Structures are given as C-alpha cells and as structure tokens.
Amino acid sequence: MAEAMVDRGSIRSFLRWTRLPAAVAASVLSLAVTGSAAARSFTPRHHKIFHGVSDTTNNKDFHRFATRVGAHPAVLEDFYHWDTPLTSGALQRWHQTRTRGVLSLSTAPGGQPELISPRQIAQGRDDHYLVRLNQTIAESKQVVYIRLFPEMNGHRNPYCAFNANGTKKGRSHSTNNFRRAWQRTVLIIRGGKRGAINQELRRRHMPRILQASSNHDPIYASENVQRHLDRPKVAFMWSPQTIGSPSVPGNQPGAYWPGKRFVDWVGADIYSAFASRGVWTAFKRFYRHWRHIPFVVGEYSPWNNDYSGDFTRKLFHFALRHGRTRMLIYYRSVNPDTPYDVNYWPRAKRVLRHMLNKHRFAPYASRRHH
C-alpha cells in the first residue's frame, strides 16, 4: 500500500527501453507523482473500523463524549476554512487526545463569502497555503485524513458549481475547475520532487508551484520551497452528497470526481433527519458504485428524529456488513451542547455504547503510523 517513491530518471530509462505508447508512458510518469493506484489510505489494521467525532476545540468535550458512548474515538474531525494553519490548534489536540486527525477543509468560513474559488486554486493563486500544509503535517509526523471540499455538489457550499435554482455559478466554479483544484491540492500536499510535481501540473494545464516561471525560479529559494517537498502521512477523502442539491444534470457526484489517483477514500454523509427511503437507496447505490476504495461516513447524527435509535442501529449494521466501510464520524456540531449532542438522543446513545464495544471498532489508531 506504500506510495510509489520511484526515481523519475529510472522511469524514463525504462520507458525508452520498453518503447511504450505515449499515453501509457504519461500514465506511468503520473503515478510516480501521485502515488500508486493503491495509494496509502491509512485504513485501520485487521479489518477494524475507526469511529470518531467532530471537534469543539475543547478536549474536555472530547472526553465527555467518549464517556457518554463508552469508547475512545479513534479520529477527531476539525472543520477548517482556507488559509487556517493546522498549527492553530488542531495538530496539538489530535496529539493530546491520542486520535488521528480529519481535516474537513472548506474555502470559506461558515456562512461567509469564500476566500478563494476553485479556479483560483487551480491557477495557483494561493499555493503558499498548500505548501504550508505539506510542511506542517510532515513535521508533526501525524497521520492526517484530508476531507477536501466535502459535499461539493451541495449548493450551500461555495465550491459547488450550481446555485440553488439549478443555474451554474460560472466558469470560476465549474466542475472542471473543481477537479483541477482538487488535483493541484493533492499533488502539492502529497509532496515529492518539485520538478516532477511541476511537470504533472503543466501536463494538466496548470501553473507550476507558486506560479513559477521555471523549475529553478528564484521564488523557490526565497519561499524556502525545497527541491524535494516532504511526503507527509496524508490520505484524501472525497465525500459528495449522494444526491445533488439541486438534483440537476451535471451536479451529481460523478461530475466532481477528480480521478482515482487523487482519492484515497470515498464517502458520504447521512443524518436521521433526512434519512428517507430514497436517501438510503442512494447511499447504498453510491457505496456499490465506488468499488475497491475504503469508505467513510464523514458525518452522521441521530439529529433530529432518532428517538428510537433505529437510524443509528441501521447505519452501524450497514457498516458491519459492508467491509469497505472503515470509518464513521459522529457530527455533534463544532460547539458543545447543541441539538446534535448524543445526550439529546438517549436511545441512539445506548445503541452507540453497544456497537462501539464490538471487537470491529478500534478505539485507537495504530502507533506504527504516528
């Protein structure tokens, strides 16, 4: 499962010797940058499942949740917006709580105007942030799952290509620019040889890192971007809505798919409040469609009608019966004591206490990857 770390010179020699067609050669070179087809996803070992919870930035709330459900969460999800450094607290909290971090990254603070568009990301307008994420995650030596631009086909998210009425937002937010923004983000954060990353970016009609004029641009020295970017322990999670909102042609999940080389996990979110028969059908169809990739439920909650605990029970039975499901994350908001809090749903809490004590759920991540 290790990411490919092959010298590109050796690859070129091999390609010349084998005389592979140009399209195949380009694919092999691309894999040298983006990682093998089975890129490291940092799934739990021995077919276990990680259960996690959203972060309120207060470790006491984390331990209170663990006590209520009777199990230590293996992962802790933080909701950050663009240009917020992980050194502002997330890395420290993940270390203190003995969890692996999930960075759910948006392009705007909640409910506020976006800070950067998908097209601007693809054009390298703020590569400084991506380089900084690469460096800080590598320096931390922690495993970090990056839930990049989640629910991208939901019009409430600034990076969605559509407005609520079904009209397109414009070229700056096209699904093509979304895919390119995703690919650029992955290429830079995963790291590797600077020249190889730049070559892959240029092949995809995007500027070099920091919009440099060449691989030897003086900007690299002034910005301390080394010839070989660190290779942090990261895995990228692609989690659209299973039904587009609005549900119009061009706004379904597949339109935002950036390519298998750029995705380590696929996932979906589901809430009791919206879990109609149709939503469950779409959820299961989505799971079946994206085969051979680990599956994550990036957000779930008994809010606002799981009085019986049936929704929570059904979701966990699904996870236990569908082997690619390797992570579920309880959303309790980013603030304590909201209607999402598990204490408001005592029967759902009882189900959680029962399920999380099954042997399939790992309370801690493997130390080998920390």
Mean pLDDT: 91
Helix-strand makeup class: alpha/beta
Roughly how many Å is the radius of gyration? 21 Å
| Element pattern in H and E | HHEHEHEHHEHEHHEEEHEHEHE
Taking pLDDT < 50 over at least 5 consecutive residues as the criterion, the unreliable ranges are: 1-20, 22-29
End-to-end span in angstroms? 16 Å
**Largest beta sheet: strand ordering:** 1-2-3-4-7-8-9-10
Strand content: 15-25%
The largest β sheet comes out as:
8 strands, parallel, barrel
Shape, per Cα inertia axes: globular
SS field, number of helical segments: 12
Number of strands: 11
- The CATH architecture classification of the largest domain is Alpha-Beta Barrel
Helix content: 25-40%
Name the CATH homologous superfamily of the largest domain.
Glycosidases
Do you know the CATH topology of the largest domain? Answer: TIM Barrel
What's the number of structural domains?
2
Instruction: Write down the CATH class of the largest domain.
Output: Alpha Beta
Give a short summary of the structure.
The protein has 370 residues and is of the alpha/beta class.
Would you give an account of this structure?
It is a single chain. This protein has 370 residues and is α/β, with parallel strands linked by helices. The protein has 2 domains: 1-38, no CATH class; 43-115 and 144-170 and 237-369, Glycosidases (TIM Barrel, Alpha-Beta Barrel), CATH 3.20.20.80. It is 34% helix and 16% strand. It contains 12 helices and 11 strands. The protein has helices at residues 8-18, 22-34, 59-69, 90-96, 118-122, 127-140, 175-190, 194-203, 219-222, 277-289, 310-321, 346-355; strands spanning 49-54, 75-81, 100-106, 143-148, 192-193, 228-229, 233-238, 265-271, 295-301, 325-330, 361-362. The strands form 2 sheets. Strands 1-2-3-4-7-8-9-10 form an 8-stranded parallel β-barrel, surrounded by 4 helices. Helix 4 (90-96) links the parallel strand 2 (75-81) and strand 3. Helix 1 packs antiparallel against helix 2 (22-34) and helix 11 (310-321) runs parallel beside helix 12. The longest helix is centred in the middle third of the chain and has 16 residues, at 175-190. The chain is globular. The two termini are 16 Å apart. 43% of the residues are buried. Residues 1-20 and 22-29 have low confidence and may be disordered.
